[in-house]
Each structure stands twice: as structure tokens, then as C-alpha cells.
Amino acid sequence: MSAAEHPNTDEIRAALAREGITVGEDDLAAIVKIVEANRAGLERARAAVSGEPEVPHGFVPPPADAAPQAG
Amino acid sequence: MDGDLAYRSLRDLGRLLDQRQVSPVDIVRAILDRIERYNTRLASYITVCGEAALAEARAAEQEIARTRRRRSRLHGLPITHKDVSLTAGVRTTAHSRCLLEYVPDRDATHVRRLREAGMILLGKTNTTEFACGTLELFGVHRNPWDLGRYAGGSSGGSANALAAGLAVVATGSDTGGSIRVPASFCGIVGLKPTYGRVSRNGLVPLSWSMDHVGPMARTVADCALLLNAMAGHDLADPASARVAVPDFTDGLDAGIQGTVLGVPRQYFYEGLDSEVDGAVRAALRQLESLGARLEPVDLPLAPHVTAPGGILIMAEAYGLHAARLRERTDDYGARTRRRIASGACYTSGEYEEAVRFRVAWTREIAAVLERVHAVVTPTLPHPAFPVEMQLGDPPDTSWGTRHFNMSGHPALTVPCGFTAAGLPVGLQLAGRYFDEASLFRIAHAYEQTTPWHTRRPKLAEAAA
């Protein structure tokens, strides 16, 4: 599917323009492909998590003062 | 002797230095000769520090003669850094037009620590642009086991240099698998340490929450020795952990009797190339024969890590590159530009969803690692693929490695066999936070009872 055919192409072009990023049609098509693949994968990932995912307070792995886990 | 020196381990070379059988100059010269001969074809190095390395070697030789001792077990031995690590006075390009003339005035923390241990900088190795994209300026790092195949990325120059005897030990960076993937493709050992174990200060960054720096070598023991000097708290990296650094070479020979290894039921053993499948299952049997107990474990979220991980990496990469990407769009290679620009297109809600998934995945794998000492998987589902495929539409090589960048757990790859065509296969071990020592112990036990680390590629056709 070319960039022009993808329903979210305009949205992605607009997002890039808002950021001041100018790209050609080839770049746009490639970017649309990457973004939409990851969005679809994120949707599947969300569905695979049982229950309501916990709201993270900062990045988790691992706390900077973590005690080493002996092997 | 020179050809022989090129494939010696740090331990062997240290012993030869201590016994005055060779000098640092002999070792550096032996490796430089091989770089001169093979680098054009292999594209291992972007910058070779020939004269400077020899000068450092002469200085080390004089210091050792004067003091009658080596500063550390690394003193007088050569090191090679991926060209995303800042090196004072030596250009650091990240394989990008944007940094072609960049000569840092300081070392990255891990570079400084290895320099202070007495290591000699041989050069800067090839990487995909900014560790995520194109290979347009300095060539494609080729696989020494088959020059028509890709060495893997992004630390491919470090990996193929080690496999071809163009380096003794090396460092790399790993945001989704960039140490482990080329290490697996090239038949060497590579470790992504625990998040926070090795400072990223002075690393050309890609993704603040996923970037790691780690050691690469031909043997597990050499990786352990290198990590000793690289690890440790550093105020200059906010993620750096205040955790004691053990001697990672202690206990290497303790064996794995009673060690419990988790074998995932989901994802990691599905759809493998048949020869990879065979090599990895043989490795599991070998580990079992050495006294390990294999335990099936459930990781139902494992198949879903790739996309949330991709969103996190590229959103963070865009954040870092936004200003430069606006101003110098055409100085980025096409693949790099597209990947990084994609990060501008996710909403903060999507980024947050990816972080939430990361929390869920991290809890899942951390719970499994409470019950087993390490999880064992193939590093990749297939061996190295043709260079043309890398230049066209390559497969996602972070297939089995990105999981541990997401969770921050340490993960190591060790060679576990070869295909009939002579291509290496890698076995990945992922362990508990800050327990790199167990990964080294398990991998060393396996390595020392298998022949894979003793094989060498035939390089005649790679000569310049």
C-alpha cells in the first residue's frame, strides 16, 4: 500500500509537519508503514495484558539502588 | 607467532606479557597487520589508531618494565570501541554524515575506565548510522564466516573484528539487541548487562531507557574480565546503579550443578530455522548433562514485545534527534531518517501505552526469574542473512533480544553451533538483575565443554 492510499497518511504527514520535518513521498510511505505496524502491534499487546495495566511511576527496570539478586 | 597472537584470549596474552614472552607492541602490531590485510573487505573499522596505538603500546611496555608489574589484568592489551563511544582526540562518527568531523575532547566513562586499566585503543568499529540505520559511508560490515552475508547490527564491526582476529576484545552498545545479534551472527560472546550496571555517559545516545553498553569477546572469561573494568556507579549517568561490582571471573569454573534454567513455552522456540532449532536443543541437552535442570516457563506476553519496544526506542530517538533532523534532514541516511522520524508520529498516549506494556512484561519475566536462575532462548531464529537483504528489507533481528532491553535484565549470547553452511548459531541466556556472574558461570560451563569457540573463519578471500 502506498502512502497515498493509507488512511492515516494525512495524519502522519501533519504530525511530521507540526514538528518541522519535511520528507518526500518515499520517506512518508516508509514512515507510515513503520508507524502503522507498531500501532497495530501495540493494539495486540494491549489486548494481551490481562486486567488494567498498572500506571507506571517512572521507568521500572531496575531501581538504581536495587540490591543485587544472588544467582 | 603473529597470526597466533591475533586469536589469543586476554588471559593468554596477559600471561605471555607477564612472562615477557611478548610485548604490548608485538600484540598491537600483530592485530594492526591483520586490520591492514582484511579491513577493506570486512569493513570492521571506521577509524584505525595505528601510530597512536603503537605509541601507547610502547608506553605500556616501558611502564611495565619500569614498575615490573602490570597496572591491572588488562594493562598492555588492546581494546576496540564501537564508533558510538566518545574517545578523546579520536573522531567519533556514529557512521553518520552529521558527525563525520566530530573529535570529542573527552572519553565516555567506559572508555576512560578501560584506558585507566591500561588498555590500548586500537580503533573505532563500524556501526549502522546512530546504531539504528544506514551503512552508506564506511561500507557494510561483512560476516567473516561468509562474506556474502551480513555481520549483524548495530555493533557489527566489533563482532566481525573479533571473529576475524582483528580485535582482542571490544565494546558495543545494545538498544534492542545490537551487541547480541552481531555476536550471534559472527560466533562470538556478547553481554548486554543489567540496566544501570555500565554507565552510558559518553555514548552517542539512541534511546535513554533502552540503551546499554557491554563487552564483546571470543570467550566468556574475556567478557567477564572486561566487565570488571567497565562496570560501576557513575554520577554522570542518571540511570547508573549504586551496586557493588564483584570480580566477574570469580566462580567461573564453579559449574552449573543444580542451576535451574527456564525454557519458554511461548514464542522463543516457535518458527525457528531447523538448523538453529537443532543447535539450540542440543545446547539444552548439553546444559542438562552438565547438571542444570530445565524447567518450562510461561511468558505469554513475549510475542508482543516488539511493537511497544519499537515505539519507545523511536519516540526517544526522535526526542534526541529532533533539532538535528530538522536542520540536516538530508545528512541522515534514508533508513535512519525514516526510522527516527517515525518517532515524531506517536502520541503521548501511545508512548504511555507502550510504557504500561513494558511494566507488565517486566513483571512477567521478573516473576519467572524468581523461580529460575536464567531463561534460555535462541538469540535469533535464523543464521546470518545475505548482505543484499540487509540493504533491502531486512527481517527484525531484535526478535528475541529486545525483550531484555525492555525489562533491563542482563542477557548474554554464546556460540552454540554452526549450520551445515558454516554459519554460527547463538544461544541467549537472560538472568536476574545484577547477576551477570551467573550468566558468565553458565555460559562458561557450556563453552568449555563444546568446541564452537575454537573454530576460526577462513579468511583468504577477505584479504585486500
Question: How would you concisely characterize the structure shown here?
Answer:
The complex is a heterodimer of chains A (71) and B (464). Chain A has helices spanning 9-18, 25-48.
Polypeptide structure, described:
The complex is a heterodimer of chains A (71) and B (464). The model of chain A has no long low-confidence stretch (mean pLDDT 80). The termini of chain A are far apart. Chain A has 2 helices and no strands. Helix content of chain A is 48%, strand content 0%. Chain A has helices spanning 9-18, 25-48. The longest helix of chain A has 24 residues, at 25-48. Chain A is elongated, with a radius of gyration of 19 Å. Helices cover 39% and strands 15% of the residues of chain B. Chain B contains 15 helices and 13 strands. In chain B, the strands form 2 sheets. Chain B has an 11-stranded mixed sheet, sandwiched between helices. A two-stranded antiparallel sheet of chain B has the order 4-5. Chain B is globular, with a radius of gyration of 21 Å. Chain B has 464 residues and is an alpha/beta fold. Chains A and B meet through α1 and α2 of A and α10, α11, α12 and α15 of B.
Main traits of this protein?
heterodimer; A: 71 residues; mainly alpha; B: 464 residues; alpha/beta; 15 helices
Radius of gyration of chain B: 21 Å
Number of strands of chain A: 0
Count of DSSP H/I helices of chain A: 2
Strand content of chain A: under 5%
- Strand order in space, largest sheet of chain B: 1-3-2-6-8-7-12-13-11-9-10
Low-confidence stretches of chain A: none
Briefly note the structural class of the backbone of chain A: mainly alpha
Strand coverage percent of chain B: 5-15%
Largest protein-protein interface:
A-B, 41 and 60 residues
